[in-house]
Amino acid sequence: MMIDETWYTRPEGVEGSVAAGGVVARVSGSEILIAVAKEPGYETAVLPKGHVDPGEDVEQAARREIAEEVGVEDLQLLTKLDVKERLDFSKTEWKRTHYYLYFTDQVDVKPLEADVHTEMDWIPIEPLPNLFWPEQVELIRENAEEIRSHLLPKQQSQAQ
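Given the sequence above, the corresponding structure tokens read:
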């Protein structure tokens, strides 16, 4: 499937919704690794994210979606990164997704929603990862310095 600019132009009359997710980072030696979710039938991965439930605040939704899609529950919020907009996978709804940066020490985790996201992986942020959604690659590229600046103290304390 080709993701082109049509995914990033809101058609008239398409309803919108709010979603939330995050870049979940950990340190391994000199590398910064991020958690990604993998779905059956797709070679590329995605950052964990999804809809905001009624009564849930956006950051709570990000934490829930991360736990469901990659299994990481021990999350330290570092900062809000950005908001990205596009059509959903079925092209029937306009998604406005809030992304947060989290740190974790968890390593061996499994998605809680194993029927949808069959596995997770830890991938380095450098070189820039190949993800299914272009705006997620853009999010990491645009925020790479900020991600490194937040994780550098974690790397230094791990090295001591």
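The radius of gyration is 15 Å. Try to locate this feature in the token string yourself.
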